[in-house]
Amino acid sequence: MSNADYQPSPIVIVAPRQTVHWIIAGALSAIAVALLLRPDSAVLGSAMAQNALAGSRGLHAFTGQLDKDKYGLFMMDVDAGTVWVYEYFPLKRRLKLVCARTFTYDRYLQNYNNDDPTPEQVEALVERERMAASRRGSAVPPVSAAPATPPQANAARAPAAPAGGLDAPPLDVDPDALPEDIIAIDEPAPASVETAKDRRKNPKGARR
Asked: Among 66, 104, 112, 207, which lies 20 to 30 A Cα-Cα from 84?
């Protein structure tokens, strides 16, 4: 066979079926929808949450440790005022009633089997502290904020300086208009002038 007579045959590629992928996608979608519609899902958890234990009524159950290797179930009936405890045995898978009692009258007790300090001792301590604080407050007089006296008022209360003081201004008086006796009394002659007159009158006595 020559190359001129050779004709290549066409190659047909059959694509694989997509049925398996569609089945997997559908299954995943169904699982997602089922998780969203579950009653105990996280989306609905806040709407179906129970009330808090404190201040609620009815029956309450909670687990706890009774001893080193013992665990139990604690139950409380708030309406009946009763509490009881079951001990759990894991090997036998059984619960055993350990104790039960009512607390109806327990809540009316105020002081029973208390260690120091008792409520009476605490009351005495508080009263002692209050008395000490009141004594400290009465020992220190309260500080009154008296208004400061203005300097004008102080100047008004100050006594007036005498007219003839050292700091008084000189008087404008004409000595010629005053009598001679007043001038002699107010202005005595200096001692040096009198001594010169005595020397002129009695020169011998001055020499002595």
From this structure: 112
Residue 46 has pLDDT above 60, yes or no: no
Q: Are 87 and 72 in contact (CB under 8 A)?
A: yes
Task: Answer yes or no: pTM beyond 0.90.
Answer: no
Q: Do residues 104 and 81 touch, judged by C-beta distance below 8 A?
A: yes
Query: Total structural domains in the chain?
Result: 1
| Parent domain of 80 | 59-108
Residue of higher predicted confidence among 35 and 107? 107
Nearest to 85 by CA among 104, 105, 65, 110: 65
81 is a domain residue: yes
d(CA 96, CA 157): 100
Identify the bridge partners of residue 84 per DSSP, sorted by sequence position. Answer: 75, 100
- Rg of the chain over all Cα atoms, to the nearest angstrom: 61
Residue count of the chain, please give it. Answer: 208
In a domain, residue 100? The reply is yes
Residues 174, 150: Cα–Cα separation, whole Å: 43
Alpha-carbon span 63 to 88, nearest angstrom: 10
Q: Is 116 exposed, middle or buried (0-12, 13-18, 19+ CB in 10 A)?
A: exposed
Query: Does residue 99 fall inside a structural domain?
Result: yes
